[in-house]
């Protein structure tokens, strides 16, 4: 039987195997939610990079560039880390380079996997349906916050486990724990997360609408996958 496991932070990734495994990276607030939204609105590709300097190199090559640190846009870059930015017509057909505090780093660390997918609540059903068709184990990699565990990515992991548990064995306690947390809070995730650390960070920036948006389930039927250095949208 295929297995599903959860890595609660990229700093623990070395304890997990990515051999014969599809890694699903989740940075719910807000990198992977932005990526899913961007592909749903016609972006051609997104190059995730770990550093601001790498992002600037792609910007100099003519790419639209998005850079975020500590939940704020970095000066000198066109795009920020709000999903609403990626609903603009100017991004349709565009190639984007993106660096974020946690999400893009998690993606770049996962490149040895069979495949690397980008997950969020927004494309939860599409991700789950795709993984059911594949013969590989699954590892959900939570981007966390600067090496620490966070609630929102753990809840996404639990939601994906919940969608897949009939066809996948839960490999370790982290998968069981994430699933139980999600089942506890799934009826009202906004309320359940009210005191979470990243919720407080985003609320200080006055972007409650981003929080509410990113916790919506199954809005988009897209599955971003890493091909070489770039994410592209895969037909499902």
UniProtKB/TrEMBL annotation:
EC number: 3.1.3.71
Gene3D superfamilies: ComB-like
Keyword Hydrolase: yes
Cofactor dependence: Mg(2+)
Catalyzed chemical reaction(s): (2R)-O-phospho-3-sulfolactate + H2O = (2R)-3-sulfolactate + phosphate
Molecular-function annotations in GO: 2-phosphosulfolactate phosphatase activity; magnesium ion binding; sulfopyruvate decarboxylase activity
Alphabetical list of InterPro entries matching this protein: ComB-like, ComB-like_sf
Bilayer-spanning residue ranges: none
Keywords: Hydrolase, Magnesium
UniProt family annotation: Belongs to the ComB family.
PANTHER family in alphabetical order: 2-PHOSPHOSULFOLACTATE PHOSPHATASE-RELATED (PTHR37311:SF1)
HAMAP family, sorted: ComB
Protein name: Probable 2-phosphosulfolactate phosphatase
């Amino acid at each position: 039987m295929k297995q599903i496991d959860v890595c609660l932070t990229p700093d623990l990734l070395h304890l997990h195997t990515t051999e014969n495994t599809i890694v699903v990276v989740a940075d719910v607030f807000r990198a992977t939610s932005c990526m899913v939204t961007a592909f749903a609105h016609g972006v051609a590709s997104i190059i995730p990079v770990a550093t601001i300097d790498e992002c600037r190199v792609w910007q100099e090559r003519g790419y639209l560039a998005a850079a975020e640190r500590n939940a704020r846009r970095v000066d000198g870059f066109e795009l920020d880390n709000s999903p609403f930015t990626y609903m603009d017509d100017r991004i349709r057909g565009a190639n984007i380079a993106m660096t974020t505090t946690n999400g893009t780093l998690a993606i770049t660390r996962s490149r040895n996997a069979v495949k690397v997918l980008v997950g969020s609540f927004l494309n939860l059903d599409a991700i789950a349906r795709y993984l059911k068709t594949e013969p590989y184990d699954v590892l959900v990699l939570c981007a966390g916050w600067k090496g620490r565990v966070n609630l929102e990515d753990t809840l996404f992991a639990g939601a994906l486990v919940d969608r897949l548990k009939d066809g996948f064995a839960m490999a370790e306690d982290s998968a069981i724990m994430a699933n139980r947390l999600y089942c506890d809070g799934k009826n009202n995730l906004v309320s359940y997360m009210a005191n979470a650390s990243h919720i407080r960070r985003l609320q200080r920036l006055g972007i409650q609408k981003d929080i509410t948006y990113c916790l919506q389930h199954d809005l988009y039927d897209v599955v971003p996958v890493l091909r070489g250095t770039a994410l592209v949208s895969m037909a499902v």
